[in-house]
């Protein structure tokens, strides 16, 4: 791994989310060395990270696909990094008192922790099922949400814990639902950098990008063994659950998984959730600026 030049030492601010679905990119980072080199880590929820990236208090991180779609001119995508599935995800779940076919005109509680999943659910309900609801944003506690509403959307570790609790009679996995509807994978988060940070700190960004890739590859290379041990201690569950969970997650952004992201963004644009269809501009680690994967609507 390439070390930074002395002149390039700086305070690149990295948004760090402690959800299990993104942990492969962070678990094996040489964090002590990175801190010594001037990098800063800011712990946050997905929603907090999205806001920090949007307002410039965070430079780089795994932001929601919706945040990227909403503000594409602010960011460059980091190649080959993301959080996707080709079907079931296991941690983006709708819990309901009634079947989807009976959910129309009922109250749906939306987690305050997410952006991608909230809009994914609206697309699935409205476009795929023709169901229209009253939505309310609530803190991510399934019992409280279902006390006030007929269905509740949860993501990440909150969704996993709620699924284990067996609180709701009906449970829908949004990754599986999206795959069944579109035939495409779904990308929930992308790794992005603010354009001014990429321009100012190219060597530092290269160092960090390499470290993210190495952490992911190390985790996958050991079949997520250390991550599973960590998840058992911190979250509970079983070895078989976490092994299956990590194996389903794809932490790359190749053309196939980019196709799912593009379809998601087309729907957002057509339904006027975003003002423009993104150009999908990627940071070019060779130092030649950026390259774009612009896709026509």
TrEMBL record:
The keyword Acetylation does not apply. Catalyzes the dehydration of chorismate into 3-[(1-carboxyvinyl)oxy]benzoate, a step in the biosynthesis of menaquinone (MK, vitamin K2). It holds the Pfam family VitK2_biosynth. Pathway: Quinol/quinone metabolism; menaquinone biosynthesis. PANTHER family: CHORISMATE DEHYDRATASE. It comes from the Bacteria. It comes from Alkalicoccus urumqiensis. One of its GO terms (biological process) is menaquinone biosynthetic process. Belongs to the MqnA/MqnD family. MqnA subfamily. The gene is mqnA. Keywords: Lyase, Menaquinone biosynthesis. GO terms for molecular function: hydro-lyase activity. This is Chorismate dehydratase. Its EC number is 4.2.1.151. It catalyses: chorismate = 3-[(1-carboxyvinyl)-oxy]benzoate + H2O.
């Amino acid at each position: 791994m390439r070390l930074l030049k002395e002149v390039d030492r700086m305070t690149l601010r990295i948004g760090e989310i402690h959800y299990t679905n993104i942990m492969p990119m962070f678990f094996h980072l040489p964090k002590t060395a990175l801190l010594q080199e001037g990098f800063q880590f800011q712990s946050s929820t997905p929603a907090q990270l999205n806001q920090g990236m949007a307002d410039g208090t965070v430079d780089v991180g795994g932001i929601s696909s919706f945040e990227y779609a909403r503000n594409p001119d602010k960011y460059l995508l980091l190649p080959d990094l993301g959080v996707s599935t080709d079907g079931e995800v296991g941690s983006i779940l709708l819990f309901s008192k009634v079947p989807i076919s009976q959910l129309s005109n009922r109250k749906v509680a939306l987690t305050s922790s997410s952006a991608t999943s909230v809009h994914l659910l609206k697309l699935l309900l409205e476009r795929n099922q023709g169901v229209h609801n009253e939505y309310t944003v609530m803190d991510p506690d399934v019992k409280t949400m279902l006390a006030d509403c007929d269905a509740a959307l949860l993501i990440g570790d909150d969704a996993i814990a709620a699924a284990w609790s067996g609180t709701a009679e009906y449970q829908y996995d949004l990754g599986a639902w999206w795959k069944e509807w579109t035939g495409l994978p779904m990308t929930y988060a992308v790794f992005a950098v603010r354009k001014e940070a990429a321009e100012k700190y190219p060597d530092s960004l290269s160092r960090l990008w390499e470290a993210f890739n190495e952490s992911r590859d190390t985790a996958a290379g050991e079949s997520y063994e250390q991550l599973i041990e960590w998840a058992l201690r911190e979250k509970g569950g079983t070895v078989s659950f976490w092994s299956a969970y990590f194996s389903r997650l794809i932490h790359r952004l190749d053309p196939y998984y980019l196709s799912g992201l593009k379809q998601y963004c087309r729907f957002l644009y057509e339904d006027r959730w975003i003002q423009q269809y993104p150009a999908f501009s990627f940071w070019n680690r060779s130092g030649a600026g950026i390259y774009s994967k612009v896709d026509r609507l």
